[in-house]
Design goal:
By secondary structure, the protein is an alpha/beta fold. The chain contains four helices and five strands. Helix 1 packs parallel to helix 4.
Length: 152
Amino acid sequence: PGSLVMIGFELLEDHPDAGRHDAQQARLKLIEDEFRAQIQQRRLYTLIDNAPHQALIDRVRGGVEFLYRCPPCLAEIGAGAGAQYVAVGWVQKVSNLILNVNIEIREVSTNRVALVKSVDMRGNNDESWIRAVRFLVRDMDDRRRANPRYGL
């Protein structure tokens, strides 16, 4: 499988709730960890450790509101990490009931979108967020089995 640097998940909220900020940030980390675990378990990509590249990721992230809206930023991080692919995810929160999880994977050398997926979820809690990420990766795996070039 191709090498992948996963730079995390971002949160888009139509109506930000300061009282839930810490819980939301913890959930973003929770689903990033789950995404990584599922990708590794299913061997869809070879994950690159972010630690040696964290300063680059932080610098690039600091210059934009959302990384997922900045393809050149993703290419810079992917190239700096020596990855074939770069992934960024985001959760769009319309309300505490209506949310969706999105992932975009780009080929670093061409900046081509290799894969983009979205999963709707109901409920703003750890279980619904994890379930959505598991479904997303399971669907990626199913499609890769049917088409070995899927997401590459």
